Amino acid sequence: MASGMRPFQPALGELDPRIPIFPLGGAMLLPYGRMPLNVFEPRYLALIDAALANGRMFGMIQPDILKPEVENGPSLFGIGCLGRITSFTETDDGRIIISVLGVIRFAVTEELETRQGYRQVMADFSPYAQDLQPEAPEIGLPRKMLLDTLRGYFDRQSLSVDWDAIGEMDDPTLLTALCMMCPFTTSEKQALLEAEPLASRAEILLALLEIGMHGSGAEAGARRLS
User: Fold this and answer.
1) Residue 96: in which H helix or E strand, if any?
2) What is the pLDDT of residues 162-178, one digit of tens each?
3) What's the pLDDT tens digit per position in 96-142?
4) What are phi and psi of 64, to 5 degrees?
5) From CA 134, how far away is CA 22, in angstroms rounded?
6) Largest CB tally within 10 Å, which of 14, 162, 212, 218?
7) 205 by DSSP, 3-state: which?
8) Do residues 208 and 193 touch, judged by C-beta distance below 8 A?
9) Looking at residue 136, what DSSP letter applies?
10) Which of 142, 115, 118 is CA-nearest to residue 199?
């Protein structure tokens, strides 16, 4: 295992290109990012069952609401992120609460027939093979600049955050967490997902935070980032 590589990380050749997908607007998964999901719809419960039986993998992808719907539902963006279920809990009321770890981005090459109500695609992982490597230690931005901008953004948007937890994160982990958690639009989150290299993602994040500092916080209300 390479230095910095996480346990259970698959090799590129071990990934099945046929994957079930969970389309969810505003919920963008990044490699090495962690996302909790509360699953209750029957088709997505079936998806989770299928994923647990096949390497615990499924794709997170955002609907592209600017395009017309297709036969299987909303149009999708062309790039998503494969996730691996790291834990799950069944509830007495029929839900499954899961934790998902981002593994590698993928390009959709073809949408397949639905199965038990959930959608499936053929995925090409090869353009994003670098996602399987250890995280880069540098993000291309001074940490103080990012944190100062973040404070202004949170104040303007009436958001609260655990600053102690942020202080304990290294720069790549912080970048990934902020990209996933901040309440950006679907298209903004997609831009963050598709950004190459890591420094470009950091620059886009900083620009979005700066825009948010000068925008209206009315829509944010009293939302909380946890």
Assistant:
1) strand 96-111
2) 999 999 999 999 999 99
3) 999 999 999 999 999 999 999 999 999 999 999 999 998 888 899 99
4) -100, 95
5) 26
6) 212
7) helix
8) no
9) P
10) 142
| Tokens (6 digits) for 8 | 């259970």
134 is written with which tokens? Answer: 């250890």
Q: What is the pLDDT of residues 75-84, one digit of tens each?
A: 999 999 999 9
Residue 125 CA to residue 128 CA, distance in Å, equals 6
List the alpha helices (DSSP H) in 23-170: 42-52, 143-157, 163-168
CB 224 within 8 A of CB 159: yes
| Residue 127: DSSP 8-state | G
Rounded to 10°, the helix 198-213/143-157 angle is 40
Look-up: residue for tokens 């069944």? 90
Question: Count of alpha carbons within 13 Å of 189, Cβ hemisphere only?
Answer: 26
Are 108 and 8 in contact, with CB atoms under 8 Å apart? no
Any idea which residue has 């009315």 for tokens?
218
CA distance 169 to 157: 22
Relative to beta strand 34-39, strand 79-90 is unpaired
Burial class (CB in 10 A: 0-12, 13-18, 19+), 174: buried
Residue 54 to residues 16, 61, 142, 190, Cα–Cα distance (Å):
9, 19, 41, 27
Looking only at the bridges linking them, the beta strands covering 18-23 and 57-61 are parallel
CA 225 – CA 223 distance, rounded (Å): 7
